[in-house]
Design goal:
493 residues, Amino acid/polyamine transporter I, 2 domains, 21 helices, 1% strand, globular
């Protein structure tokens, strides 16, 4: 549906009062620059510090084989994530469009890799990541009521569905409200980490170091499982790419994007290592491996008087990650549709709420399907392969773009050695994972490749019968009327 006729059709369904309200409140329909430095930092920390630090320690220890190596994996994952975040700080200031990896691949390596990133993101990696975060939320909400018995998995999934539904509704309703809630939840989750670190280090000062004395036992370490340990650690650090999804909504992005990324990742890395050290002061490696809710087990040992508070704080932390992810990732779909790589209905904005309503709603049914069909550690590995492959491809594209266009403006420029190290390590981990977990990574790779025929059939040149295009236009028009959405009326990049 073309913008002008669609807008005229839409206005026929609005009352004169609604039309006057639109004109008086705002003259044009577009996404506003409302994200300052504090909300930007809150979005990164709020997305990164979610379920990962409360779930991934088990996966890291299980696949690294010892306490010392698991702590080393956590530190190296933090350094590697910082290297990647610095690369994205350069990309975010070099290209002013929202969309993160999709936009950068489009600008550096061309439309096919960009489309595959879009395809992979919204067909399975984003639904998978939202699913395992919401499952963590459901587990931490439900398990305290059934301790010491196991909580019913059906109830956990039902609570997870309710959380996802609320977050979707919130991000459809208001950008400002979602942003303010994210800032509040970020402070809440940092308080949760402090509540774990302080008693852990008090125990360390009192001499409880027995679990750390034989830290580097490498007999149980195998090359096959080491990439999975890094995947679990990197999953906990994941989310630093998300601020780049909303570049067009960040105030003064040349300053705030690099500053927010650096402040956030340094803070998160320090806190993550300290939290894992605190875990080992109260739990033996075998006890940690037996726990599906590590923070709850820790609270029962270290803070018996506050044992019920920790699950609540962890659940709020997971909720913050859900909210931040649902705020940022639909902007990638919004930009992809604007570039013609997705149906145009997903590049439209609600005429009053100023939210990308169709893009936010698309993920919901896919998330619900994965919630009821996936196990949490399988979901992590399944989504990590494609996610890290495209992160590596994005930074490779940055290096290629530097070589081809050395005079392109780059307000923030990361040292080339950092970009090269990050790219090589990511490709190495991705390649090694095909050996260590061929089933899940193979499925992920196969689903990624399904986007190639879709691209050549629908994007590069529309090769399907005209009836398909007519049906698509018909549904787009009626969805536009139903959702009350239109194309943005001014360019924001």
């Amino acid at each position: 549906v073309r913008r002008k006729p669609a807008l005229l059709i839409l206005k026929r369904f609005l009352t004169p009062k609604q039309m006057r309200k639109e004109k008086t409140e705002d003259e044009v329909v577009h996404l506003r620059r409302e994200i300052g430095l504090l909300p930007a930092v809150s979005f990164i920390i709020g997305i990164v510090v979610g379920s990962g630090i409360f779930i991934a320690p088990k996966g890291v220890l299980m696949n690294s084989g010892s306490v010392g190596l698991s702590l080393l994996v956590w530190a190296l994952c933090g350094v590697l994530s910082m290297f990647g975040a610095l690369c994205f700080a350069e990309l975010g200031t070099s290209f002013t469009k929202s969309g993160s990896q999709y936009t950068y691949l489009l600008e550096t390596l061309g439309p096919l890799p960009a489309f595959l990133r879009l395809w992979v993101t919204f067909i399975f990696t984003r639904p998978a990541s939202v699913s395992y975060v919401s499952l963590a939320f459901g587990r931490y909400v439900v398990e305290p009521f059934f301790a010491p018995c196991a909580a019913p998995i059906v109830l956990i999934k039902l609570v997870s569905v309710l959380a996802v539904t609320f977050v979707v509704a919130l991000n459809c309703w208001s950008v400002t409200t979602a942003s303010r809630i994210q800032v509040t939840l970020t402070f809440t989750k940092m308080f949760a980490l402090v509540l774990i670190i302080v008693p852990g280090f008090m125990a360390l000062v009192k001499g409880r170091t027995e679990n750390l004395q034989k830290g580097f036992e490498i007999e149980s370490l195998t090359l096959a499982t080491l990439p999975i340990a890094f995947y679990n650690g990197l999953y906990a650090y994941g989310g630093w790419t998300n601020l780049n999804c909303i570049t067009e909504e960040v105030i003064n992005p040349n300053r705030n994007i690099p500053l927010a990324i650096i402040l956030s990742m340094v803070t998160v890395t320090i806190f993550y290592v300290l939290v894992n050290v605190a875990y080992y002061t109260m739990m033996t490696p075998s006890e940690l491996l037996m726990s599906d809710a590590v923070a709850v087990t820790f609270a029962n040992r270290a803070l018996p008087g506050l044992a019920l508070v920790i699950p609540i704080l962890v659940a709020l932390s997971c909720f913050g990650t859900l909210n931040g992810g649902y705020f940022t990732s639909p902007r990638t779909l919004f930009v992809g549709a604007r570039e013609g790589h997705w149906p145009s209905i997903f590049s439209m904005i609600h005429i009053r709420r100023r939210t990308p309503l169709p893009a936010v709603l698309l993920q919901y049914p896919l998330v619900i399907l994965m919630l009821f069909g996936g196990e949490i550690y399988q979901l992590i590995t399944f989504s990590s392969f494609a996610g890290w492959f495209f992160v590596a491809l994005t930074t490779l594209g940055m290096l290629v773009h530097r070589y081809r266009f050395p005079l392109h403006p780059r307000p923030f420029k990361v040292p080339a050695v950092i970009a090269v190290i990050f790219t090589v390590v990511c490709f190495f981990i991705v390649g090694l994972s095909l050996y260590s977990d061929p089933w899940n990574t193979g499925r992920s790779c196969a689903l990624m490749l399904t986007g190639i025929p879709v691209y050549y059939l629908t994007v590069q040149r529309f090769r399907l019968p005209n009836r398909f295009k007519y049906i698509s236009d018909y549904f787009s028009m009626h969805l536009q009327l139903l959702l009350e959405v239109v194309q943005q009326e001014i360019q924001t990049y």
